[in-house]
Amino acid sequence: MIPKKIHYVWVGNQPKSELILKCIESWKKHLPDYEIIEWNNEKFERIKNKYSEQAYQNRKWAFVSDYVRLYALYHEGGIYLDTDVEVTNNLDQFLHLNFFSGYENYHGNVLPITSATIGAKAGNSIIADLLSYYENADFETSDGLDLQPNTVRIGRYFSEKFGLQAPYNSSQETLLDEKSIIYPSYYFCVPEYELENFSIHLFNGSWCPSHSRKDKLKFFNKFILSRFIRLRYTGELQVTSKEKILLKIPVSKTKQYVLIIRRE
Prior knowledge:
It comes from Photorhabdus namnaonensis. This is Glycosyltransferase sugar-binding region containing DXD motif protein. InterPro entries: Glycosyltransferase_domain, GlycoTrfase_DXD_sugar-bd_CS, Nucleotide-diphossugar_trans. One of its GO terms (biological process) is mannosyl-inositol phosphorylceramide biosynthetic process. This protein is α+β, with helices and mostly antiparallel strands. It folds into two domains: 5-205, Spore Coat Polysaccharide Biosynthesis Protein SpsA, Chain A (Alpha-Beta Complex); 211-262, no CATH class. 26% of the residues lie in helices and 30% in strands. It has seven helices and 17 strands. The chain has a seven-stranded mixed β-sheet. β1, α1 and β2 form a beta-alpha-beta unit. The relative contact order is 0.14.
């Protein structure tokens, strides 16, 4: 059983952004009985790992997090969330598993798991294997800093261990074993229309669009009824310089229909 613990990493001394605080509020809203554990500077001092210590010394916080998230899951169990993950639904239905995550789909670039949302029992063998990549690794190498994203290591592991090969199908559910599952990308990464979603990876809320848009109906050569799905907290609805929003019709937490007029 995966315990009701949410782990996140916040090292360094920078203040949390409004986006991050809103994400954490979404955890509290949908997971009110979960313990939220911050792996901060004080906790990090008790972890002995050369790779993460070197990353910390170089102020590469994301690479510190790559190791600490695995350390937290292996030793305590629970669910790890990046600080730019918005929870949209309760996660209790996944707690009976030994391991779960979902495919990551960033603008069509699909990866075998989203490292932004990972759940595991303490001592899980998949987490142990991923941890082992870092045991004798150096962040500071003879060629400079090792800035290889954790998704490369993760992809290599799932290829060697489970035979997962690109191109990945982000809409499928992959059973690694009886109680270890990689879910479709719309579960924990980017929501899709009328499909169940549990968390949204906002990708730091900066370089991905704030909404997806699909024009559903055009009439009189000047009016457009468009469907917008929110992908992150910040950002306005995308309309062109020749378009003006007349009416917004929210239909869910993330979806709304918008009546637009095209100006000459």
